[in-house]
Amino acid sequence: MSATTFPYTFMGFEPGTTRQQVHDCIANWHKGDNKILELSKAYKLQPGTGWLIDPCVLHAPGSLCTYEPQWGSDVFGMYQNLVEGREVPWSLLVKDMPEDKHEDIDFIIDQLDWEKNLDPTFKDNHYLEPVTSGQEDGYHDKWIVYGKIDGEQLFTAKELTVEPGQTCTVRDGGAYGLIVVQGEGHANKLRLNCPKLLRFNELSQDEFFATEAAARDGVTFENTSDTEPLVCLRYFGPETQPDAPEMGAYKTG
After folding, report:
1. 75 with 167, same domain?
2. What are the residues whose beta carbons fall under 8 Å from the beta carbon of 78, sequence distance 6 or more?
3. Which of 64, 99, 126 is the last residue of a domain?
4. Which residues contact 179 (CB under 8 A, 6 or more apart)?
5. CB distance 107 to 101 below 8 Å
6. For the whole model, what pTM was predicted?
7. CA 12 to CA 37: how far, in whole Å?
8. What is the pLDDT of residue 251?
């Protein structure tokens, strides 16, 4: 599924949606809009918030810039056939399915997790708001991706903001990758800089990897700007953050 150019994301199916309704949408692929979005629900996107989506759950990302850590691989099936008036080829629906199943609508529907797509409490089970994990004068750190999928913590992520001219040391329970989304400074002795413009073949200074030992010892972040915050996203692998909040923690945290 895919969304039109407004800040809404369609996810899952409305409770009560039948398999026959979805079958009809797929069968009508070559007859104009297959109207699968009419079976779904749109949620207005709020900057800074997010969603933890299980595999085999339909979702149509909206038009806001999105940070999307993933686990395993990025296979997909495009169940919506018309986006902003542009036709989606059948091949994008079946590209990651066995070739002998490319015309088997029942098989195509079977790729969906029916129970999770029709979850009547979908938002409660998937919606994320930031949860503060550390805050002192000059910086604040917060969980932005947390929770578990089928009982496993597959990945988590945090957002660190260091105010202009400030320094902080952050310790984490596991190795992580980092991307700078605003500002400039240092992580230990490594230069950090969010690029404003990159030409072909030019290198940037907006990504680095911290080993487990370095993360546990603590990485010192320094904001060298006089005016602009330094904002970094850190993403962690499976089961490295036992202290990460549970789903819904923002309601009490």
Report:
1. no
2. 1, 2, 88, 92, 93
3. 126
4. 206, 207, 232, 233
5. yes
6. 0.89
7. 9
8. 80
